[in-house]
Structures are given as structure tokens and as C-alpha cells.
Amino acid sequence: MPRAVWKGAISFGLVHVPVTLYPASQEGGIDFDWLDKRSMDPVGYKRVNKRTGVEIQKEDVVKGVKQDDGEYVVLSDEEIKAAFPKSTQTIEIESFVKASEISFFLLERPYYLEPIGNSGKVYALLRESMLEAGVIGIARVVMHTKEHLAALVPAGPALMLNTIRWAADLRPVDELKLPAEGNAAAILKPAELKMAAQLIDDMTGKWKPETYNDTFSAAINKLVKQKVKAGETETVTPLEDAPPEGGASNVIDLTELLAKSLGKRRPGTAARSTEGADPGEAGTATPAKRAPLKRAVRKRA
């Protein structure tokens, strides 16, 4: 299991679902290490003062934001966290949309969300309700001192979080020299369009990701095996690296009632009470009675 990268809670109205965030993707391909060709010593990354060339310690590094006049504003980790006291520990769902409305150009990196403690019931409730409605959640989350827009997506037994690029991060196409839109403007002949459509139709099929492989890595691995077989290897003495520092995360295990969330969003609507429920049962909620939802189609992102 990969190392957890974030701990916090999904905020769904007044309901909080404590979760742990894990990477859902893994880097494939060839992992090239840097070596000094003169001595075959490992070459690594160091924090170096660019003016003096002297290596400095992690605790001596601070974050600075450069201003237009060349001056810097220095911010500590505590100041950055204080600026987002809620967002740093919350995946706050702001709305729900159809998955088809999100352009794949905006998708960045996927993560798995695992419920913490006894919050599994509310986790499952949110997952199944989203599947019934055929929607995904749009949320904000702060990771590594950077705010991300994200899509909360039900995928089988899991809830996945896929970070989304901000619209402003995509460069406008007017910076490029592109052909004009439309058949007439692009001066396309009917015969050309007919043959192109036929070719596309012949090549169209169902998406099967398992049929696509990294052929470059396969070729490099084959070359490496050939060199090993021929005895063309070098001895590299690894350097001892300091173990990474683990950071503690304070997780608030707080579950509110869905009925209160509905009442808050719809003034004048009486939310059903859940009095009598065990107040010590964290991670559960009794929702207001809803009309049955169709389960015939389950849309997945």
C-alpha cells in the first residue's frame, strides 16, 4: 500500500466523513538513476545556496513569494496553514455535476479515499447516493500548501479524488496558428470528409486500457537484459539517505446529520429529527426519507 499523502474529512453539507488520501496512480516506465561517470557514485538532489554554493539544511529553507519590484514576502508553514484553517483538512464538496460535463483536458492526478475509523457507513452512503444520481462532486482541497479543485468520483467500492486544473491554467488557443473552424472555412472537399469518416469508423472500438502497453520501457528493459547477460554492468555503492520525516495530522472525527444539512440549504423545510440516536456513534448518519432512486444506470467517470 502506498504512503498516505493527506488526512482529513470529506465535507458534505453538515456531514463530515474522515478519510485518508492515497495515490491511485503509479509511475511506470524506466527509472533512470543519475551517476557520476568518472566514479560511478550516485548523483542526487541537494538544497544549495545558489550564491555561495553551500548546502543548507531543510529547516533553514523558507517559502518566499516574489513581488513585481523584486522583493519577497516570506511565509512560514504556520502562516500558510492559518490562512486556510478549514481547507487544509477538508475536502469540501461545493456542488454536484454530471461527469460528462468535465473535460478530460482538465483532469490531473487520481487518488483513493479510504474511510477512517467507523465512518464507513457515511462513506458508503455518499458513494451510493452519487451513483444513484449519476453525478460527481466538485470540491476544493489543500495539499502541500497548494489549493486544488477536484472531482470526487464513485468508482466501484471506492471514492476517488481526481485533481482538476483551474480553467486559468489552460492557455488560450488564440496564441496558436490554427486552421479556421468549419468545413468551408478549412476548404475541405466532400470526398475527403467521406473517406476520413470511413477511416474513423473502421478504427472505432471500445476503450480497453489493458490492450495498450509501454513499448518504450519494454525496449529499454530488453536492452538492459542484454547488457547484463554480456556482463556490461557497473558497481555503484549506495549512499545512506536520511529517513523521511513523517508529519502528524490531526483528524476531527465529526459526523453531523444529513437532515440538518437539508434544512440549512432549504429554509422553511422541516428536517427530520434523529433524536434518540446514539450521539457517540461517530461516522454514521440517519438521512431523511427519500423517494426511491433508479439504479438501472450507473455512470462512472
Task: Explain what you see.
The protein has 301 residues and is an alpha+beta fold. The protein has a domain of 193 residues: Ku70, Chain: A, Domain 2, CATH 2.40.290. Helices cover 19% and strands 23% of the residues. It has five helices and nine strands. The strands form two sheets. Strands 1-2-6-9-8-7-5 form a seven-stranded mixed beta barrel. A two-stranded antiparallel sheet has the order 3-4. A hairpin with a 2-residue loop joins β1 and β2. The longest helix has 15 residues. The radius of gyration is 26 Å and the shape is extended. The protein starts with 5 loop residues before the first strand and ends in a 36-residue tail after the last helix.
How do you describe this structure in short?
It contains 5 helices and 9 strands. By secondary structure, the protein is α+β, with helices and mostly antiparallel strands. The chain has a 7-stranded mixed β-barrel.
Key attributes of the depicted protein:
5 helices, Ku70, Chain: A, Domain 2, single chain, alpha+beta, 23% strand, two-stranded antiparallel sheet, 301 residues, disordered C terminus
Topology summary:
Layout: E1 6-12, E2 15-23, E3 63-66, E4 72-75, H1 77-83, E5 90-98, E6 107-115, H2 120-133, E7 135-143, E8 146-155, E9 158-164, H3 190-203, H4 215-229, H5 258-265
Parallel strand pairs: 1-5
Antiparallel strand pairs: 1-2, 2-6, 3-4, 5-7, 6-9, 7-8, 8-9
